[in-house]
Design a protein that fits this description.
Layout (H helix, E strand, L loop, with lengths): L5 H9 L10 H17 L11 H11 L17 H9 L10 E10 L15 E12 L2 E9 L1 E5 L2 E11 L4 E9 L15 E12 L3 E12 L2 E12 H6 L17 H5 L4 H8 L14 E6 L2 E8 L12 E4 L18 H7 L3 E6 L5 E6 L2 E6 L10 E4 L5 E8 L3 H18 L4
Parallel strand pairs: 6-7
Antiparallel strand pairs: 1-2, 1-17, 2-3, 4-5, 5-6, 7-8, 8-9, 10-11, 11-12, 13-14, 14-15, 15-16
């Protein structure tokens, strides 16, 4: 191989452009086609979840134009005002909702006036309803509604009904758990001639295997009045097994799940810290009695302080904050798209909110209504669906369905709640 003469090469370089152009039209077409192929091969990632740099932040503004809900990024103050204005002026349609929400709600009622001959003060009680909100042919709607709480449990749906049993002197408001495709079986409670007894069970939380229940009882034996309160977390089978009544007899109730059952024995040091906290009183915190309670945007654990073993005082409890996060097996999805303070900055009247696991739906509790928005839709826009809440109605359950389960839930929930309506007693 002959090496080129340096002088000849130098002369060619001095003479002007190369004889063969370096950036031909064919090369340009090849580059453009390669870029297009690369763009088509990129994975479809939600732009609101992955962004970096000013340009990507501007894209996030386009897709999620909430003026006040955003991460506290150091890049935000430096963002050019013209970018923000351009982002706010462009209206992009949010992704369609593909998730279904099975929501359970509780309404507390004042009791009727005391019956003639009764010496007991009436007790407050609760009623419940379940709704399924799901997309049908691209439109979000309430597909079914019924009384009680319908909840998924393993491979089936179960139903929790609030029933009433009355005798001449007693009144029981109790919770009954059964498979959703089976009829409810009313229970009978013992009736003692020398005792007047009111008993109320209240469902506070329903997950996909655990439920939280408060129990209150009033009794009158001869001339001695009695009132007591307990609170437990149970599994669904434990709720089905039965009920403890007549607390004044101090029956030992093993039919519950303790904090130790969830976290193990190493939780004792945490309970000790709670017991030594500034809000603790003179009782004991064993972790046997606790509950799952709703706070704005999340479920939290509350551990109960109860009278010490052997105390002659009636059963009662005081709730304290539990400092650990609840495990997924208790609350299987309890994540928000953003902080609660961010939600309130966009919806100042909001009292609670839910976000779907697919981040395609956000639910706002506001002004006695449930407002359903596609994820990424500005707060000032009209919700895709609005449902009225009953006065004082509270969240008990929020379960989500995705993919092919959405249609399965639409079919099954509609059937189970319709059967429940047919079997309701006046």
């Amino acid at each position: 191989m002959n090496n080129p003469d340096p002088d000849d090469l130098h002369k060619k370089l001095e003479s002007g452009p190369l004889e063969q152009p370096g950036f031909t039209s064919k090369l340009q077409r090849d580059i453009e086609e390669a870029i297009e192929r690369k763009e088509r091969a990129k994975p479809k990632v939600k732009p609101v979840l992955c962004f970096a740099g000013v340009g990507a932040i501007a894209a996030a503004v386009l897709l999620f134009p909430w003026s006040t809900i955003h991460t506290q990024s150091a890049a935000a103050p430096a963002m050019d005002a013209s970018v923000m204005t351009a982002g706010a002026s462009i209206s992009l349609s949010p992704a369609p909702i593909s998730t279904a929400l099975l929501i359970g709600l509780r309404t507390e009622h004042d009791p009727n006036s005391s019956e003639v001959g009764s010496t007991l003060k009436p007790m407050r009680y609760s009623t419940y309803r379940t709704m399924l909100i799901a997309p049908v042919r691209g439109q979000l709607q309430k597909t079914s509604e019924g009384t009680g709480i319908l909840m998924p449990y393993k491979q089936n749906f179960w139903k929790i009904d609030s029933l009433v049993h009355k005798t001449k002197t007693d009144e029981f408001h109790y919770l009954s758990a059964h498979l959703a495709d089976q009829p409810v079986k009313p229970e009978k409670f013992p009736d003692q001639a020398d005792v007047q007894l009111n008993h109320v069970e209240t469902l506070l939380f329903a997950g996909n295997q655990y439920v939280s229940i408060a129990e209150s009882e009033q009794a009158w034996r001869g001339n001695a009045p009695y009132q007591a309160d307990r609170i437990w977390v149970r599994t669904l089978p434990q709720l089905k097994e039965g009920h403890t009544v007549q607390f004044y007899n101090k029956p030992l109730d093993k039919n519950h799940v303790s904090i130790n059952d969830l976290y193990g024995t190493n939780i004792s040091s945490v309970l000790t810290r709670v017991s030594n906290g500034p809000t603790a009183m003179l009782g004991e915190i064993t972790g046997q009695s606790w509950t799952v309670q709703r706070e704005p945007g999340r479920w939290v654990g509350k551990v109960a302080e109860t009278p010490r073993v052997g105390a002659k005082t009636p059963d009662s409890y005081v709730l304290h904050d539990f400092p650990l996060e609840l495990p997924d097996k208790v609350v299987n999805h309890d994540d928000l798209c953003c902080s609660w303070s961010g939600i309130q900055s966009s919806w100042p009247q909001a009292t609670d909110t839910l976000t779907s696991p697919m981040n395609d739906m956000i639910v706002i509790f506001e002004d006695g209504k449930l407002k359903f928005y596609p994820y990424g839709q500005a707060p000032g826009n009209t919700p895709q669906l609005v449902l009225d809440l009953q006065p004082g109605e509270q969240l008990v359950m929020a379960q989500w369905a995705t993919d092919h389960y959405v249609q399965e839930w639409i079919d099954k929930v509609g059937r189970y709640l319709s059967v429940n309506k047919m079997n309701e007693h006046p």
